[in-house]
Amino acid sequence: MRIYNTLSGKLENFNSLKKEEISLYVCGITPYDSAHLGHIKTYSTFDILNRFLCLSGFKVNYIQNITDIDPPLFRRANEKKVSYKNLAESEIKKFKENLIALNILLPKKFVKVSENLDKIINSIEKLFSNNYAYLTDNVYFDSRKFSSFGELSKLNRHQMLENKTFIKTESNLKNKKDSLDFLLWRVTDEFPNWKSPWGNGQPGWHIECSTIINFSLGSQIDIHGGGDDLIFPHHECEIAQSRILNGNASLANYWVHIAPLNIDGKKMSKSTGNLVFAKDILKNYSPEALRLYFASSHYRKSLEYSESKLKKFENLKDLIIKPKNLSYGSKIRDENGKANYKEIISALNDDLNTPLALEKLIDFAKKVEIEGFTNAEEKKMYLKMKWLFGI
Q1: Cα dihedral angle (8, 177, 173, 64), rounded to 10 degrees?
Q2: In the structure, what pLDDT confidence band is assigned to residue 249 with cuts at 50, 70 and 90?
Q3: What pTM value is reported for the model?
Q4: Which residues pair with 23 in a beta bridge?
Q5: Are residues 290 and 255 in the same domain?
Q6: By three-state DSSP, how is residue 383 classified?
Q7: Which CATH number is 98's domain given?
Q8: Cross-strand bridge partners of residue 26
Q9: Fewer CB within 10 Å: N-end or C-end of the chain?
Q10: pLDDT tier for residue 333 given thresholds of 50, 70 and 90
Q11: Cα separation, 120 vs 114, whole angstroms
Q12: One-character DSSP codes across 252-274
């Protein structure tokens, strides 16, 4: 399999760290609101990757974090006058229900930040011992000492400082040695807060994932993924921290990022409010149509939200789910069925080319619709292909 590695900026041949096991970490949700279709597009894509790796003979150790300690969660809980813990649990439950409704295989484990604060504090202490952390009003990572900062995003200093997410998360933090230094521990008496060697407070966003990866999967993993909006600052900061924590290990051999779902040319996101929620769209469209719609676009290309395209796949889904002609027909098509199967596998091996693989699956379904399956083996191949797409 060839996969595009954001770190190198190139298509690379995939080689796992262990012969038959793959470590996969995908950044999860902050559970303060319902999952929107942009989230679902990302997790649906990684589900196809997960399934394809499993079909290829690997055991996939797939982990997602849950950021249940985060200021947006606390603010939303205050607005609703509910416990942040109750709000988080409610949204986590809804999120898992959405994944199950869409036939997305759940990760092997969801890891909550709240259950691992001791490990996060230990990570920060280790950064202090290596002289990469310092305390002023808060605890920060000293980015000036990390010469490779920016290698993942390919952004220069000015571009990093102008990044909207960086401004949003760092603009109110003033007492830093350098403007690019990022938060490791926020010292605050605001509720909720936790004890630390530097005062009561809350962990920074980036150190959470670095820590969870270390103890859940190890210092070096195969694939780290998420939406492409996480490349900077989140994943860039993860690399910086993790290389210090792990003795200059690269954290992940392959960095895989999913392009956004857009509405009217703008990324669907909570910050802009241009949201379509999974729970709402599933009232009018089937899970299969939604998954086929996402698969019709390559994961590295942004997809424009379109109900007309959703309707197209709603009309097409029955052909793929269960062709009417399930009998065994002529032997003439024997090689054609095998050819379609090989073409689908080849497409997915080429940087997870789901649009081409889907095209070949539709061709396969049309042949079966007219002529039936050639034999039991061809039917088995067809069912595997449906399973790959989660339908």
Answers
A1: 30
A2: confident
A3: 0.95
A4: 61
A5: no
A6: helix
A7: 3.40.50.620
A8: 64, 225
A9: N
A10: low
A11: 10
A12: EEEEEEEPPEEETTEE--TTTT-
Asked if 318 and 352 sit in the same domain, the reply is: yes
Q: In this structure, are 246 and 163 located in the same domain?
A: yes
| CATH number of the domain where residue 372 is located | 1.10.730.10
Could you give the angle at which helices 37-55 and 287-295 cross, rounded to 10 degrees? 80
CA distance 339 to 131: 58
Rounded Cα distance between 212 and 100, Å, is 24
Amino acid sitting at position 196: S
β-strand partners of 348: none
DSSP-assigned states of every residue in 274-303 = ---BHHHHTTTS-HHHHHHHHHTS-TTS-E
Query: What does residue 133 show for φ and ψ, rounded to 5 degrees?
Result: -125, 150
Q: How far is CA 192 from the centre of its chain?
A: 28
Q: Is the model's pLDDT at 274 over the cut of 90? A: no
CB atoms closer than 10 angstroms to residue 125: 14
Question: What Rg do the C-alpha atoms of the chain give, in angstroms?
Answer: 23
Q: Are residues 209 and 289 in the same domain?
A: no
Among 337, 359, 332, 362, CA closest to 348: 359
| Ramachandran area for residue 149 (φ above 0: left; ψ -120 to 50: alpha; else beta) | beta
Q: What are phi and psi of 111, to 5 degrees?
A: -115, 120
Torsion sign across C-alpha atoms 11, 106, 260, 27: negative
State the pLDDT at residue 326: 65
Please answer whether residues 358 and 296 qualify as being in contact, where contact means their C-beta atoms are separated by less than 8 angstroms.
yes
Q: Which amino acid is at 61?
A: N
Q: What CA–CA distance (Å, rounded) separates 43 from 28?
A: 9
| Residues 206, 209, 210, 211, CA torsion sign | positive
